[in-house]
Design a protein that fits this description.
20% helix, two-stranded antiparallel ribbon, alpha+beta, binds zinc ion, 6 strands, 2 domains, two-stranded antiparallel sheet
């Protein structure tokens, strides 16, 4: 039985993620007329609106896929071959000034300095990040810029 089509939640946001994923170019041709691009459901289940199941493509290639001229395997392979672009938004970076001797500058975002040694001379930094991409995150390093001075 065919599954019901479910409207994509936050369609503009999903479309923007999908457009970034393909770098605004149809992955099957060179078309860049993204305003006409359509969202294809890779597993052909129109109720599965997970980003992993969606691919933004030009109308020509969308119809080729739905007609079966391009196989599902090729579509899946194409989706997997798209470069992984993580969209990480830094929501906030703060210092835990109750549990360490570090405090933030009043007028500079994300800059901290040591004030004394109590209760701990080591800065305790709190990060809040939002992963807007459907990909898993692996942190390998965090860059800290030393010696900020006003
Ligand atoms: Zn195309």
């Amino acid at each position: 039985m065919a599954k019901e089509r479910i409207k994509i939640k936050q369609p503009m946001k999903v479309r923007s993620i999908l457009q970034k994923e393909i770098n605004s170019i149809c992955p099957f041709c060179d078309s860049t007329e993204v305003e006409y691009f359509e969202i294809h459901h890779i597993d052909e289940d129109p109720s599965n609106n997970e980003i992993e199941n969606l691919l933004l493509i030009c109308p020509t290639h969308h119809s080729k896929i739905t007609k079966g001229d391009i196989s599902k395997e090729i579509v899946e392979r194409t989706k997997k071959s798209l470069p992984i672009k993580l969209q990480i938004e830094v929501a906030s970076i703060s210092i835990d000034h109750n549990n360490c001797s570090w405090v933030s500058y009043d007028d500079v975002k994300h800059a901290f300095y040591q004030r004394g040694n109590e209760p701990s001379p080591f800065p305790i930094i709190c990060f809040s990040l939002i992963n807007h991409s459907p990909k898993t995150i692996l942190f390998t390093e965090i860059e800290l810029k030393e010696q900020y001075r006003i």
